[in-house]
Write a structure and sequence with these properties.
alpha+beta; about 120 residues; Glutaredoxin; elongated
């Protein structure tokens, strides 16, 4: 391997690590605080977990706009995990997105973007 290919691999690995961990996501409040922030701000409440490829896809597709949404890590909060399981037949399927009383599991990024524009 050449030095250039090693550098490329290291940089690619660092980027992958950054975007697949909580560092690449906005601050993650508790479920209670997240619900209140989403309601007051009129933005989507997105439940996610580190290492979830579907969550990563949504986060990357939303880009900087995604920072307006409230992201709650279900691994950090048992109440968040319970809420996700309650609407997904007992499964902790993420991303699960709430907008008001409506929820969608693994929604299309275009739908979430529309909710962010409202």
């Amino acid at each position: 391997m050449t030095a250039t290919s090693i550098v490329v691999l290291v940089v690619a690995g660092a980027v992958l690590l950054l975007v697949s961990t909580p560092v690449g996501f906005p601050r993650s409040p508790s479920d209670e605080v997240g619900r209140a922030e989403a309601e007051v701000g009129g933005v989507p409440l997105i439940y996610w977990r580190p290492g979830c490829s579907f969550c990563l896809r949504l986060r990357l597709a939303l880009g900087w706009r995604g920072r307006r949404a409230v992201w709650v890590n279900v691994r950090r909060d048992p109440a968040a995990s319970a809420r996700v399981r309650a609407v997904n037949g007992g499964n902790e399927t993420v991303p699960t997105v709430f907008v008001g009383d409506e929820h969608r599991t693994n929604p299309a990024p275009a739908w979430v973007r529309q909710q962010l524009v409202r």
